[in-house]
Amino acid sequence: MHFSIPETETRAGDGGAAYVAYNIHVNGVLHCRVRYSQLLGLHEQLRKEYGANVVPAFPPKKIFTLTPAEVEQRREQLEKYMQAVRQDPTLGGSETFNSFLRKAQQETQQIPTEEVVLEVLLSNGQKVKVTILTSDQTEDVLEAVASKLDLPDDLVGYFSLFLVRETKDGAFSFVRKLQEFELPYVSVTSLHNPEFRIILRKSYWDSSYDDDVMEHRVGLNLLYAQTVSDIEHGWILVNKEQHRQLKSLQEKVSKKEFIRLAQTLKYYGYLKFDPCVTDFPEKGCHVVVSAGNNELNFQVRLPSEQMKEGSFKVTRMRCWRVTSSVPMSNGPSGSSPGKSEVKLELAFEYLMSKDRLQWVTITSPQAIMLSICLQSMVDELMVKKSGGSIRKMFRRRVNGALRRSDSQQAVKSPPLLDSPDASREPMAKLSSKLTSVSLRGISHSSSANDVGANDFHGNYAFEGIGDEDL
């Protein structure tokens, strides 16, 4: 997650006295508005629980009223503090930190705690309505959806809730995976746009885990619905013969066999992103990025209009970072959140050959989601490398049996596949060896110079390679 405090506001307190409020943005969108004293309270609570040697330094109190320059300095210091806490595995994952952000989010959006009905979509467009509290966190909502669908407890962790934007053709543009520090109902309603929805989708990358999910009827139906949807939206490539075989399996209601065949197809299990811009292999190239199979796949349109394709393995990314440019403004307190023109970039440092690291930059509103995908791939790789189980990756509550719904809802079977799209352009390989393509340096956004070490994601799955491995 990319935390920033790009702006402050002067607001009137309950007694009429003015105070400075700090707008905390997550992924370029306003998450909450807090006072210095609230952040100081969070800091003191973290110190009490984890010790002064673990918690980063906090900007000191001032006796006198701050000058504009001092307000700006404090804003920068608080931003670095929040980034440092979030990046720390212990502090960033603590209930103290996450509950602070959830409470602040609810207070900022002025949404009272009450029972509501939240609509969650499945990949096939089916709507699942769950009764929750506005103050329910992401895990609560995920469990409510799982209960409604009668998904077993031990399969819940294989799925996640995602914030998406529905496009005109019925497809979904992924914004981000919903996190433990936010309230899903508040997150989606505060955007004030019906195009934003919450969708349930599998959250793992290794297709061998499909076997676990397919053991149960509901898991199988969810995976089947997602696979059919991905094929229909062109995320999985299918030729005419493969399409005929898939349709035949659909007609026989052979869901497992359908998924087994789909697993052999190109881009199965990939998440496809909206067209964006990259500096690879040259600046200003239009690209469609897909994430899956422990790689980022690039389908690049060169200035010559030629289409080329190539992939970047996550194990060869030394680190990556997300930078954002948010306009500085002291707009009115009533201004709608999320409407600022925010420029987001994902840049990763890639091992092109044995001794040559190069930066590759993607400029996309979905940069945060790309970063989340990379991190989850690394997490999954490290669990597998240590001989662990993916089931243990997902923290369950100590006393956490699912709250079972009184009424279950079946996952509807999607309709038969339409005819394959014959208009897809053939792709040339980007290069037989990535070393044969020279990369441009990273293109800094206006905020990149302010990015500190805490914005970097170090890759524990990074592997050294030789030229013969490329």
TrEMBL record:
It holds the Pfam family PX. It is a peripheral membrane protein. Residues 401-430 are annotated as: Disordered. Residues 114-205 form the Ras-associating domain. It is found in: Cytoplasmic vesicle membrane; Early endosome. GO terms for molecular function: phosphatidylinositol binding. It comes from the Eukaryota. The keyword Protein transport applies. CDD domains: FERM-like_C_SNX17 (cd13337), FERM_F1_SNX17 (cd16121), PX_SNX17_31 (cd06885). Residues 1-108 form the PX domain. GO terms for biological process: endocytic recycling; intracellular protein transport; signal transduction. Keywords: Cytoplasm, Cytoplasmic vesicle, Endosome, Lipid-binding, Membrane, Protein transport, Transport. Signal peptide: none annotated. Belongs to the sorting nexin family. Critical regulator of endosomal recycling of numerous surface proteins, including integrins, signaling receptor and channels. Binds to NPxY sequences in the cytoplasmic tails of target cargos. Associates with retriever and CCC complexes to prevent lysosomal degradation and promote cell surface recycling of numerous cargos such as integrins ITGB1, ITGB5 and their associated alpha subunits. Also required for maintenance of normal cell surface levels of APP and LRP1. Interacts with membranes containing phosphatidylinositol 3-phosphate (PtdIns(3P)). This is Sorting nexin-17. It comes from Accipiter nisus (Eurasian sparrowhawk).
